[in-house]
Amino acid sequence: MSKANSLDRPPSAAAARSRLVRDASGYMAATYVSQVLAFGIGVLIKGLLGPTDLGIWTMLLAILSFLGLLEFGVIQAANKEISYALSKGDKAEAERFKRVQFSFVALTSVLGTVGMIAYALWTRSGNDALTLGMLAVALILPISQLHMGQVTVYWANQLFSKTSLLIVAETVLTGTLGLFLVWRFGVAGQVAAFLLIVLVKIGALAWPARDQPQLKIGFAWDLQVLQHLLKAGVPLFLVSVSNVLKVSGTIFLISHFFGTESVGFYALALSVQNFIYWTPNAFSIVMFPRFQARYADSNDQAAALRSYLVKPIQGLVFFLLPLLLSAAYFIVPVLIDHALPAYRPTIVVLTVMLPGTFFLSLEHMPAQFLTTTNRHWQRVTISLLSLLLVALCTVAAVQISESLLSFVTGISVAYFLAFMLAFQYAIHHAKGPRSDRWLGLMMTGAFLYLAVIVVLVDGFVAASHGSWQIDLTVAFGKWLLCILLLVPVFIMAERQLELLSTLGNLCRNLVKRKT
Fold this sequence. Notes:
The protein is mainly α. It is built from 17 helices and no strands. The two termini are 26 Å apart.
């Protein structure tokens, strides 16, 4: 068979699964190397900033998140439409989507910059750090949006290895240039480091794209294409608004009710949550173009996506999340206690946030399923209901006890309810076997089993309260004991998913290629 014919032949199921695991493991490995390093670097930065300055920086990031919504979902819609067009072999259509995306994002971000500068100057109060920070955020916005457009084009072309390396490079820069600037200039140095790193990332993606037209930043107006992207993007924009309000909106509420220092405590716990959340997020990024490809190949049959909806969630519930949440529960408090004593109130906040993190981390696959099957407005409805749940649960919790701890308890309860709502709706439309109706109950049971194991191990092995070496050793011992007690769950999941077998085969194939 000729090489051309070999390339045209559709991949087998085993080959497709192997490539998926390779892309996902590569991207997630880079993400985790980055996240582990970033967490250590973050400990140093948080120690240098202190809770109050960390609270200011967290609020600036929240402002940038809100300003990022000015793309009105066009970036997300372009990711979907470029992936779908490439799956159909229509490179010209993909190019039109790409260019219109960049043009629209450039225009809206410049308008956002002008508006933010005007607002910051109108509300300025002397040499206030937050006001100066808002002016800096206004300048960062166009660069940040342009970079997001770049990344989207790479992802749509399934070039995850390029962005994987960029993740690690960003962490290295944060740990060198970023640390130096924070040490010298405090929160102003943090803002400057953020800007410089975004500029480096843009250059790093633009350089390999210079000889690949499909990856280059390009601009062109096509009103018909823009209307198509806006039509697909507005529902995704509303989902983003809901998500930003859930995450960044809570930061402003905490600042209002409990003060900037409490924002700093919450921000540290949130960084641990984001560390856990990054794995399913990275896997979701790898999966999205595959959702589009399978949907296109099946002539837009939602049932063809059932395994893509269910199996990643099973892998997270029964394998990865138990490892990550138990590690966070046992190890992170020791790090805070010894490395960041000013942040000790964060420990109890983090403990309450971890259950919500478990279910928040599972939200990606139902969202991808609904987006791929063009159930955009249904996804909007579910997102708005999720936001309503967060609002109701936090209000109810604060009515019981007006404290930061009660506030985050309400958030965790809301995340559980919101995920169950989204998953049950998605699994109903995936039209799988009748046994799928029990998956939500099984996931809840898996979480409860994990919670019981963690509590029992924590109560069985007493804390030492000695040196950091002894405390860290005890924490790792608790984590390993917890993993040992979770082995039956791992075995049961492996029989269904064969995840470890696939990873093993992939590693063996890589070794054979090198030898």
